[in-house]
Amino acid sequence: MVTLSGIVAQILAIVVALALAPLLTGWVNQWRAWLQNRSAPSLLQPYRMLHKLFNKESVLAESASPLFRIAPYIVFACMALVCGIAPTLSTDLPLATAADAIALVGLFALARVFISLAAMDIGTSFGSLGARREMLIGFLAEPALLMVLFSASLITQSTSLANIVQTIAHQPFAIYPSLAVAGVAFTFVALAENARIPVDNPATHLELTMIHEALILEYSGRHLALIEWAASLKLLAYSCIGLALFLPWGIASADTPLAMLIALPVLIAKLAVGGIVLALIETINAKMRLFRVPEFLATAFLLAVIALLVHVLLGA
């Protein structure tokens, strides 16, 4: 049953995600620069970039179809909806009952399909190149992500992230080997899906290596701002999904404002630690060649299947 407190919690979750997503990106970029002994950009640089892009005119190619124009809005809406499904501050979310893990992966796939179609719509070589690479990564990453979510659902007997958080957070502390293996697989998938090193480098435009940047070369103005904001939302969504599956403690289960106020600083602290870990992973690893990416994601899928089998056979 949908309650007023649930609606408030749902709206608050989406608002917090929209506000924190650029901050998380700035935090990761800042720590990445520090670890590489470079001058770090401002923590608020992503907000400044979004403000600048929203105030610039959008330039469209003559051959751009309506699909090219609406794709940024669809991608942004999908990522915002994912952040509304993933429990960040509370498990009392009306959307959580209507969308499970499969729908979550479907939203990621829907956003990928539209941004890839938009990249090919203009007819440039870079757009087609990026679209093919993006679909290849999605084809390999989505099954691995599903296996990770299924491993957690076997423990809780539910594919809803809210139910997974409630079950794991309120049972006696226990170490699940299956979740540990699934956590490694989820890390591999998150790096690939968010165009991070070693799969992709978000700070380069080299033809032989770029994937995400090749998709958005033809966008400008508010369209580019929405896509960049959606990329930050996607990084936040994967971070929150990982926290919900493997570190669910601190997420409010009671539908009280005080519980959600306590959950907010806990969420920020966990995201801050996760951002430092991500920056460290990107610093100590090198960008792998493109033909090694299938091996990387196949390893993630294999680890996720092993986690599933460990729980089925050993119950752990």
Q: How is this structure best described in words?
A:
- This protein has 316 residues and is mostly helical.
- Helix content is 72%, strand content 0%.
- Helix 5 packs antiparallel against helix 6.
- 46% of the residues are buried.
Write down the Rg: 19 Å
Question: What distance lies between the first and last C-alpha atoms, to the nearest angstrom?
Answer: 33 Å
Please provide the ordered H/E string of secondary-structure elements: HHHHHHHHHHHH
The helix fraction, in percent, is over 70%
Mean pLDDT score? 86
Q: So how many helices? A: 12
Number of E-state strands: 0
Largest sheet: none
Structural classification = mainly alpha
Strand content: under 5%
Spans of at least 5 consecutive residues whose pLDDT stays below 50 are none
Can you lay out the helices and strands and say which pair or pack?
Layout (H helix, E strand, L loop, with lengths): L3 H32 L9 H10 L11 H20 L8 H5 L2 H21 L3 H32 L4 H9 L7 H17 L18 H4 L5 H26 L10 H28 L8 H22 L2
Helix pairs in contact: 1-3, 1-10, 1-11, 2-10, 3-5, 3-10, 5-6, 6-7, 6-8, 6-12, 8-10, 8-12
